[in-house]
Amino acid sequence: MLNRRDFLKLVGVGGAGAAAGFALGELTKTPPAKLIPYLIPPEDVIPGIANWYASACMQCSAGCGILVRVMEGRAKKIEGNPLHPINKGGLCARGQAGLQLLYNPDRIKNPLKRNGKRGKGEFEEITWEEGLSILTNNLMELRSHGEADRLYLLTSLIRGHLNFLLADFMKAYGSPNYLQYDLFQYENLRFANKIIVGQYTIPHYDIANTNFLLSFGADFVTTWISPVNYNYGYGQMRQGEGRNVRGKLVQIEPRLSLTGANADEWVPVRPGTEGVLALGIAYIILEGGYYRGGDAKLWKDALKKYNPEAVASTTEVSEDRIKQLGKEFATTKPSLAIGGETVSSYENGVSNLVAINLLNHLSGNIGKTGGVIPNPDVIKKSFNPIATIAKDASRRKIKTLILHNANPVFTTPETLKLKDALKDIPFIASLSSLHDETTALADLILPSHTYFEDWGDDFAEPTVGYSVATIMQPAVSPLFNTKGAGDVFISLAKTLGGNLQKDITWEDFGVFLRDSWKKIYERHKGDIKEANFEDFWNDLLARGGWWDAVPKASKPVRVAASEVSAHLSSEPAKFEGNDKEYPFYLILYPHLSYKDGRGANLPWLQELPDPMTSVVWGTWIEMNSKAATGMGIKEGDMLLVESPFGKITAPVYFYPGQRPDTISIPLGQGHTSYGRYADGRGANPIELLPAKTDPKTGAIPLNSTRIKITRVNAPKSFVKMEGVAKELGRNIVQTITPEEFKKMGKEA
Amino acid sequence: MAGFIELMLERFKVYREPGYYKRFDYWWAMVIDLDRCTGCGACVTACQAENNTPVVGEEECGKGRNLSWIRIERYIEGEYPNVKVKFIPVLCPQCDRAPCEVACPVYATYHNQDGLNVQVYNRCVGTFTCATYCPYDVRRFNWFTYNKKNFLKGNGGSSTSFEPPLDQQLNPDVSVREMGVMEKCTFCIQRIRAAKDRAKDENRPIRDGEIQPACVQTCPTKALTFGDLNNPKSRIAQLAGLSTAGDLHYLRESGSKISDISSNPRTYRLLEDLNAAPTIFYLKRVMKNGSSTAGHE
Ligand code: SF4
Ligand code: SF4
Ligand code: SF4
């Protein structure tokens, strides 16, 4: 652990990101525990002088640490916290754009009560007193009818003490129905890891130290799991100091993602056959005698049908290439195989991920530097897929639904009928900073703080081999008449009385958080340098969190061929719709700027050109120009895209990094109720999907249908920023070959 | 034509006597490692957040009037499945022999003592000449006072670039520009000034790595490095393979090619033959010839 003096020393050294370093030094001058209330003790409000407060990024679930630059009580800039082990000072574009959430002109400024028909968006402003009493009365009534279990609480992925508070609240109230939802919860991956690594967590993929990275559709430089950490790893893998080999990246995916564009090789596999290809590679590892385990024979038997010939015909990857990949993966040490959103998003996502993980087991990459590093166990949440909510609501099991920052109406296919089902719920309250498609159905809206105005913390998952906690502190005082979700639940508990009052005794959420950390301090006293809790807490806030950089030794896991093979499937993933009528596979992917749609209301992100197509402010369809020949389609034409389940229209972009039999569409646009920057822009391709969820994990398979396209006459096309996509001999991006680069190393 | 060139040289002299830079402490420069950069675009948003560059909206973007000071160029060569994609961040490389400087009729753009190409907004009358002369297409023009223009017209909503309360985010260290003014990357000069003040207060030189422009700071892959080229021990001098002071002075005076003096065969300068002497040193991407899929064939 770092004590304050070490911390200042660390901050003081040049070279370690001193701009931010200074900032951190500056910050320790004003203990943030006493910070803010700009309106009360203004001693840290010196005109023209910036203070930096360490906090947590909440733009996705990666758990990056941030520093917020505050001048005269207003947040001016966000930077990555250079001390934070996940993001190491960096931030992605979404993280940078966070302030446009805080200052969004469409923020909800006061509590609102529905006045008019549900879903019509007609609300009237009310006071907090009134808002809280409406909710309290509703909850009292429910409880007095013995229907406490018919209260459902649905939130975004919350991992810190707010999660514990909400769980306590629901338990004391008497409802087991506390659910969390995100379109990308990586539940399939956890499930697959349980089978192969023996842990229901996401491990740390040590990209920085690997020499051969085999990525099956993991677009880790844009949105996948922990993009800033993986981008850092990527930079190190290529050109890290003190590395004598440049790590190689092979990307296996039907649509060339941004990560694929950076790869040394692209394998445009047939959609849905990635798992089979992984098993084909496993076959080569076993055949070549590269697997050292005593049970090689059992594995060979289990995998005998995945010979190169059979696999080549299924996957459309040549036999030679399968052999080559197998050999290279097994003989380059350390190597690492990862399976991303594309493969996880087929209907057989789990079995694909198991197959990919098996490669790590057979090559001995698990627990190795540059391989798969197990993470500390996390508390496993009872898992309820979003489909359950739709079902329970339509069966009228839900009487009251409280939402907090979750927007499932936008991210679930129409075919799941969630929106209709929600209409059957008698009372919906939403604790949200902004309007969204789900909040639009609420009867009561209680505007919540953004992550710049609230207390909180976050336990990142995955971390980097050891536990990482990030603290969120109110860097600025609330802009509007909002409250933190924690505070709302604490005050509800007080007025509801009974068990709730007994169990939830804190004044407010800030006090609860501090008390909880006091308990952590007491438990870990031995490992903590700070002599008393006050010092520990101040350091915690100054540094932005607590991380214990001693990786726990991992227990070896026994992986039995017989058990694992039960989870493998030799069949390619199924796509709905027959291939005569619907000639194209549909691949949907989370977009760099909007991810699942949450970023679409931030103008900076709307105006950030898409890295592959350079399109801004809209949706587009990616198609290979070869597939368009004979159809009379030109780039920019509006296409009607139809699946057996729905249709959308959007303009087409000709993209050579696309299999001719596949069409890809980014997620994120097509909002109807998400503020002025997002509404009425582009289309939401989720509407094309069938009503399917994975029975074991609840995941929604994004890549599960075929589509057809027709040109429609419509004037509106997209705006793209690119000029000429060719270098035309200007030698702009100069390159050297890997061979030349190797020679350089020898000379140096 | 001859008269024109003479005029240029004459103007050039006003800015530059040989060896002038030796009188000054710093020469700011950047190294961009293309083998690290993934094209993720974080630097683009970071620059926008730091430098009060307005959002112009879809319609203006369609006219090529996006105001970002840094962009990621993407090149795609080849056809499926042999596709090769390359990225390069492009921002003003603060050319040592900047064509824009000699072209401006009102001296709104000039070279400062730290090797920066500086734009004086108050002096700019919007002739657009500098942008025409800039070989890197990094100068951006304010066609409107974007903070007064509704850019959501036609989309049902209404918003200016810094629609309240978005304006509360504006960086007080950087001015907000109005219609008719040219702007471009400043190497985050406000951060350089702050570091200078700090160093002066503490009576010491600026430390290597102490200044991080917003784009450099956020880059998740650490593709960007900023520093003082006058200091041969600086990280950028090391990375660019320019590790003796002699190299650097030679570079400045002779107008030689970087490959003649750099000890790193990966170092190059963008469109070097144009002789604008840019002070961003790119490190070449390591990539197979031909296509990114040519691997096993
Ligand atoms: S990856 Fe980006 S959005 Fe996600 S936590 Fe990190 S900075 Fe924030
Ligand atoms: S932030 Fe870094 S990796 Fe991303 S595009 Fe910019 S320079 Fe490249
Ligand atoms: S150096 Fe500063 S002004 Fe220039 S591109 Fe980077 S962030 Fe923008």
CATH architecture of chain B: 2-Layer Sandwich
> Biggest interface between protein chains, with counts per chain?
A-B, 106 and 94 residues
Q: Strand order, biggest sheet of chain B?
A: 8-1-10-9
Assembly of the depicted chains = heterodimer
Q: How is the CATH topology of chain B named?
A: Alpha-Beta Plaits
Gap between N and C termini of chain B: 53 Å
How much helix is in the residues of chain B? 25-40%
DSSP, total strands of chain A? 28
Tell me the name of the CATH class of chain B. Alpha Beta
Structural account:
The complex is a heterodimer of chains A (748) and B (297). In chain A, helix 10 (274-287) packs antiparallel against helix 12 (308-315). Helices cover 31% and strands 17% of the residues of chain A. In chain A, the strands form seven sheets. A seven-stranded mixed beta sheet of chain A has the order 5-4-16-15-14-6-7, with helices on one face. A six-stranded mixed beta sheet of chain A has the order 22-24-23-26-20-25. In chain A, strands 11-10-9-12 form a four-stranded parallel beta sheet. Chain A is globular and about 70 Å long. By secondary structure, chain A is of the alpha/beta class. The longest helix of chain A is centred in the first third of the chain and has 17 residues, at 128-144. Among the domains of chain A are: 114-183 and 383-448 and 487-506, Rossmann fold; 187-373, Dimethylsulfoxide Reductase, domain 2 (3-Layer(aba) Sandwich), CATH 3.40.228; 584-720, Barwin-like endoglucanases, CATH 2.40.40. Residues 1-43 of chain A have low confidence and may be disordered. Chain B is an alpha+beta fold. Chain B has a single domain (20-284), classed as Alpha-Beta Plaits, CATH 3.30.70. In chain B, 26% of the residues lie in helices and 15% in strands. In chain B, the strands form four sheets. In chain B, strands 8-1-10-9 form a four-stranded mixed beta sheet. Chain B has a two-stranded antiparallel ribbon with strand order 2-3. In chain B, strands 4-5 form a two-stranded antiparallel ribbon. The longest helix of chain B has 14 residues, at 2-15. Residues 290-297 of chain B have low confidence and may be disordered. Chains A and B meet through helix 2, strand 3, helix 3, helix 4 and helix 8 of A and helix 2, helix 3, strand 2, strand 3 and helix 6 of B. Strand 28 of chain A pairs parallel with strand 11 of chain B, so a sheet runs across the interface. One iron/sulfur cluster binds at residues 37-43, 72, 89, 219, 221, 223-224 of chain B.
